[in-house]
Design goal:
This protein is of the alpha+beta class and about 475 residues long. Helices cover about 20% and strands about 25% of the residues. A hairpin with a 4-residue loop joins strand 9 and strand 10.
């Protein structure tokens, strides 16, 4: 036991001697500093979020990176007695976040400025146009004859039938309602729906077509109703071909058109054609089922059917159209224009004419009510135009201006033989009142004109943006033929 204690004491003395020797040897010896390799230009690090797989490139100096991520010798610590104050500089990640955020805000500002520039005032006059989205083109009222509207080699009155008894509007059946439905309606009307193909003049009715749409057979001897915008609101813009369900082709002539309601009547030489039955649009009920039949896109999709409901009636959706519309959520695509909107009893209750085609809107199509169709079609078949209409002889666009605090119709063209010819009015002036009533749309103008007859004098108030002047002109109304 005594030997063990002596050995233990000897070991302790040896250890103390070794430690004293090391201290003595290292008193004047400087510890070698670690060598830091040359710093690369950039460090690529992985994001903190493990779900984010894409590497994020940072431009952190290598020395700073090493100091932050590796333990350092004590003598390389800065201010070992007093903690170093935290740096106010933003981290690289925060900087990147701020840059991305500011870039996004900048992009929004650029987009907003671009939007403002697109919707800026018409002709730099701080007047903005009002647009209506239709299929396939906007329906613009036409009162001014153009070269394209010339009658060409035929007289439209030669296509009329003064003995036409008028389009019959049938009532909804009261019996056997179980037999009716979408399938019944399609079978009843399918053969009465035709394709309308419009070619450039002198095309020989072949080659690439300009416009394609849909029509409905009204009579066995070849009267067909469609939209006026399909034929370019004119009598002679196109060579027109009709294609029936059984692929028969006919050359068509324009009997007449009415751009106010977007309706036109064509005529082909044929006999014993299948005829569509028309129902009374006054009997329409909101939410009742309907189908639309037409030729969307091209004739490869001839007589396509879509189904929906009546969403609303008596909609006023266009400042350039005097009609009120049936609204439906049945799909109406380019090429459906002029085709029927049908109830479940095999009856046409409207003619599809337009849709709201903005990206954020779906299921908002519009059809001309059959009651309006009858009134317009009856006159066109009998006279080639709608009777008891008067005109002021201009074309234009509904506009408004916040800067000038005005709204009205900007004149786009003046008929040289019309009521407003030889007055102070000129292209670019804005009609702001008619017959003492302020107006903001063609619909309001038409409502005023319907209270007058050919030969009546009315005052039209205009605004001229060039000098901000307002003045009146007096015109004598003409029959609109």
């Amino acid at each position: 036991m005594d030997n063990f204690n002596d050995n233990q004491n000897q070991w302790a003395e040896n250890i103390d001697a070794i430690e004293n020797t090391e201290k003595s040897e290292n008193t004047d010896t400087e510890i070698a500093k670690p060598t830091i390799p040359n710093a690369p230009q950039n460090i690529v690090t992985q994001p903190v979020d493990a779900a984010e797989r894409t590497p994020v490139k940072e431009t952190t100096p290598y020395r700073e990176y090493v100091m932050k991520t590796q333990p350092q010798p004590a003598e390389y610590s800065v201010n070992t007695t007093t903690p170093k104050a935290q740096s106010n500089k933003m981290s690289a990640g925060l900087k990147a976040f701020m840059i991305i955020t500011l870039s996004f805000i900048g992009a929004l500002l650029v987009a907003f400025i671009a939007y403002i520039s697109v919707t800026t005032p018409l002709n730099n006059k701080n007047i903005s146009k009002e647009y209506f989205y239709s299929t396939p083109d906007s329906t613009v009222p036409t009162e001014v004859p153009t070269e394209n509207q010339s009658q060409g080699s035929y007289d439209p009155e030669s296509q009329t039938d003064k003995d036409f008894k008028g389009l019959k509007l049938e009532q909804k059946p009261n019996k056997d309602k179980d037999k009716y439905g979408a399938n019944y309606t399609f079978k009843a009307l399918d053969n009465a729906v035709v394709g309308i193909i419009c070619y450039g003049k002198d095309s020989g009715y072949s080659g690439d077509y300009r416009v394609q749409g849909t029509g409905i057979i009204l009579t066995k001897d070849g009267y067909i109703v469609t939209n006026s915008h399909i034929i370019n609101n004119s009598r002679n813009s196109y060579d027109i071909k009709i294609v029936t369900k059984d692929k028969e082709e006919y050359v068509a002539k324009v009997v007449g058109f009415d751009s106010r309601t977007d309706l036109a009547v064509l005529k082909i030489k044929a006999d014993n054609l299948p005829v569509a039955a028309f129902g009374d649009s006054d009997q329409i009920e909101i939410t009742e089922d309907v189908i639309a039949i037409g030729n969307p896109r091209d004739m490869n999709f001839q007589n396509s059917v879509t189904k929906g409901i009546v969403s609303a009636v008596d909609r006023e959706v266009s400042s350039s159209n005097s009609s009120k519309f049936i609204q439906t959520d049945a799909a109406i695509n380019p090429g459906n224009s002029g085709g029927p909107l049908c109830n479940m009893y095999g009856q046409v209750i409207g003619i599809n004419t337009s849709k709201i085609s903005l990206e954020d809107y779906e299921g908002m199509g519009f059809a001309i009510p059959s009651k309006t169709v009858k009134r317009v079609v009856d006159d066109i078949i009998r006279y080639s135009y709608v009777q008891n209409r008067v005109r002021i002889g201009i074309t234009g666009t509904a506009v408004y201006s916040l800067e000038y605090d005005i709204k009205g119709i900007e004149i786009g063209e003046i008929d040289k033989k019309g009521p407003m010819a030889n007055t102070k009015a000129q292209v670019g002036d804005v009609i702001i009142a008619v017959d003492g009533t302020e107006i903001s749309s063609f619909t309001e103008v038409y409502n005023i004109l319907e209270t007058h007859k050919a030969g009546d004098e009315i005052k039209i108030k205009l605004f001229r943006p060039e000098d901000k002047s307002k003045f009146n002109v007096t015109v004598t109304l003409q029959a609109d033929k």
